[in-house]
Amino acid sequence: MIGGRGGALIGLGVAGLILCLTLGTLAAVAWRAEAASGLGPADWAALRFTLLQAALSATVSAALAVPVARAFARRRFRGRGVLIALLGAPFILPVIVAVLGLLAVFGRSGLMNDALRALGLPEVSIYGLQGVLVAHVFLNLPLATRLVLQGWAAIPAERFRLAASLGLGPAEVGRFLERPMLRAVLPGAWVAVFVLCLTSFAVALTLGGGPAATTLELAIYQAFRFDFDLSRAALLAAVQFALCLAAAGLAAGVARPAGLGAGLDRPVDRRDAGSPWLRVQDGAVIAAASLFLLLPLAMVLLRGVPQLGALPGPVWEAAARSVAVALASTLLCVALALPLAIAAVDLRRGGRWLEAAGMLGLATSPLVLGTGLFVLLRPLVRPADLALPVTVLVNAVMALPFVLRALLPALRDLRAGYGRLAESLGLAGMARLRLLTLPRLRAPLGFGAGLAAALSMGDLGVIALFADQRTETLPLQLYRLMGAYRMDAAAGAAVLLLGLSLGLFRAFDRGGRGHAGP
Amino acid sequence: MRHFLIAAGLLSAGIAAAQDAPVLTVYTYDSFVSEWGPGPKVEAAFEAICTCDLRFVATGDGAELLSRLRLEGAATEADIVLGLDSNLTAAAAATGLFAPHALGMRDYDLPVVWDDPMFVPYDWGYFAFVHDKARLPDPPASFEALAASDVSIIIQDPRASTPGLGLLLWVKAAYPDRAAGIWEGLADNIVTVTPGWSESYGLFLQGEADMVLSYTTSPAYHLIAEGDDSKAAASFTEGHYLQIEVAGAIASTDVPDLADRFLAFMVSEEFQKVIPQTNWMYPAVTPPGGLPAGFDTLITPARALIYPPGEAARIRIEALTEWQTALSR
Amino acid sequence: MLVLDRLRIVQDDFTLTADFTVPTGARVAVIGPSGAGKSTLLAAVAGFVPLAAGRILWNGQDLAPLPPGARPLSILFQDQNLFPHLTVTRNIGLGLRPDLRLDRAQQARVAAALERVGLAGLGARLPAQLSGGQQGRVALARVLLRARPLLLLDEPFAALGPALKAEMLDLVAEIAAETGSTVLMVSHEPADARRFAPLSVLVAEGRAAPPAPTAALLDNPPPALAAYLGR
Fold first, then answer.
1. Residue A298 belongs to what domain range?
2. What backbone phi and psi angles, to 5 degrees, belong to C184?
3. Nearest Cα residue to A131 out of A195, A198, A64, A56
4. Of the partner residues A210, A464, A484, the one whose CB lies closest to the CB of residue B193
5. What subunits touch chain B, counting only 3 or more CB pairs under 8 A?
6. What is the pLDDT of residues C99-151, one digit of tens each?
7. Is residue A267 located within the same domain as residue A332?
8. Which of A263, A425, A435 sits opposite C69 (nearest CB)?
9. CB contact under 8 A, A431 and C68
10. pTM score, two decimals?
């Protein structure tokens, strides 16, 4: 036991809190519904499209993440760390900023079509399923790559040393070291992207080109907004939950522990990847991924940087507020994730369930969560009084799955490698946390905290129902600027948001990475 | 210690004064209260005359406003709900939460007669397709011409956006029997459908389409705020659908007199003169000074289309199915 | 006195029984074919493997309710005996207090233990900066400080060369003598067993036999052991 009985209880408590916030709010919405209703044909069409785009997006993202992560795992070069951090940026962008950036490259008057026209070639339309895929891969390839890259980093240097001593080439290293690692890591990455795409709606609709690209989340939105059909909203949200659980179950069934054991933190020396051909290949992969992920960001910067100086005061105030909220929700998120992850690894039977509970945040429709909380809390307090605490809490729960994903494999490896030694020495409770768990988990903790902070920055005050005049965040200000025709100022605010999110991510991630990290 | 006591005394006196002033809670949509919306000016102007504390509570857009109100029911904190549009008033009235207003019959500067007993209009506008005059010198002049052309447009989803719903009703009002056919004709002109107005307009400004669904008043923003006269709205021969934004008082309010005063204030000059250059809509009562310079350059549709409140809600379902079927092919 | 009282360990289709006593202060080799269950036997005593039946007693006290860290024993595994992110000093200090809040006297004891195993001055290093033999010495220094009456060795020195291994075993013998420990040591090398352990437990065919004099056992092995020894 890493956390002991007390640790398991805290873990169970956290799981309970998450259940209340996710399934509990769903139940509250259903309970508040005035009449029961079923799913119509349009809802089934939305379900089919949702599944199709999410499965395709997850598969493409996971498949592309493998060569990109492998190239990064094999190469050491100046600026590698900065590049990896930058490539993570699309994941934390507010959706509308990402879409505008993508369209500046792939849109009808984007760079790509400009180039095609200049060459006298036919234009390519991004709108349609291909556009949904491009956008979802753009947004999620960074996450998938990071998850897979962590898998690579977790292969002990000793194994590569052994491989080098045996004269194993890239093919054999792939077969004996990398493939088992991928089998352990890739299903989790796939599910993370799948579930993220499951709840997407603005991207899917905008780039999908029309109502054929309707997702479940849009159907939920419609049920709330126009039909005020709470029971249908709750039903659709329940379907969304079921899909997420099914996907997580599937991944758990496919994944196998890598069984590559623990090492002594020696620096990795990749003798297997020294050939010039592999260098060229890895270089090309890194260049292509960078181009795909950074060009849209560059367009966002190009447009927004000149506007930075002219940003109105309220934008800066909102930025400060967003940073404060992000820091608070990061702290809370880590405080929730750590005991939950420890309990999930400790408890043999219940562990899977705890893990699943932690992942529920991903499957939650923000709209249902916000409405459920509102229904539950409104009889007790003025919603506006809770604007900031609720934002902090919801952001923490929404980011929890990512932090858990980062922590769990590392925690499992830690137990496999040093669990018995720690137990034989009676290393338990807080001492174990301080001396073993925290120091050994520094890298994934830093990564997870960075993600939580960045995600919280980019969150659009999910809980519109709780919002009040004095609590608007930077993304909300960005939308307000756009809503008031001020697209240029919005572009400036987007750059500010991007910079702050990346800065926070980088600060945490760096803090976590000693020589042990990727 | 004495200083502390004095300070505490002053502080509590200040709080008591604030508590004594009656509070008027106004639920509205988000862009109304933003720094660039009418909210801040309206609040200052009303508080200067009401000896009250005007508090805005913002929730998404007009449709979400109504959802929130239904969620809260009679226990709502709202005294006034501001920002519903004429397509939503039937559903709003059906909640039974609104009280008749005390303004009586007034002569509004609207293209149609307004005699609703519960809801008071504060601004209005026509939906229209906006384009860049340099890039599209000869815009289509009707839905049919648009459908026959290869002009590209970006619209909003009627399930998620108020202008999107407006376009749905616009087509239906212009072609009651042929709406499905019109949509089929438009299908290849539509570059994409966005969840909200902001996304559409942002995409349009970035050059993703020749035209965007917006308002006839949109070019006024570019002209007045940016000194840019390149944008124009295309005038359609079928007429343009009207959006009228309204407010109503909640029946269970504990400050009914103050609520009535606010509604009266809303159609007064102090409120109305703020509207054109913050909400970029036409005021419901044209201020004595007239409209700001630049509004005279806007197109004036020959025909105003609008469904009576009850009918809009009924037609919406049928029109939505037509829209979805035509565009899902 | 360590008593294995009608012990039965079941893991899937593998079963191991043991029913014998090890006298206090004895040094016992655990020998037998690969996969017979030598490590499993030690893991059961250490508390990592649940018992299907029987009891393990130390000086009359049933160890069942005690978690591994609270049992009157120290164990060294085949590998991962040191935490790679902690310095040598801290790794050893864990033997005194698992929360490492050491007072001055305790710090002095850590330094003394380091010196006792011949690593004076290397306390600030990380395990990866040590040779295999040095890593073994660090682990033994920790054993010294833990001063538990029972020491279980699951081939921690298997990776070392013969001379180095002999040196380590001598060090173990000295430490065991200083602390009066009873030692159970898994071994593959008859020579190690002869050198170190007057008594041997033969683990074969699902049973751990009572301790018998090592020399006699090796000179006149039963069939299972003979096959393993290649005779």
1. 37-309
2. -115, 125
3. A56
4. A210
5. A
6. 888 999 999 999 999 998 889 899 999 998 998 889 999 999 999 898 899 99
7. no
8. A425
9. no
10. 0.83
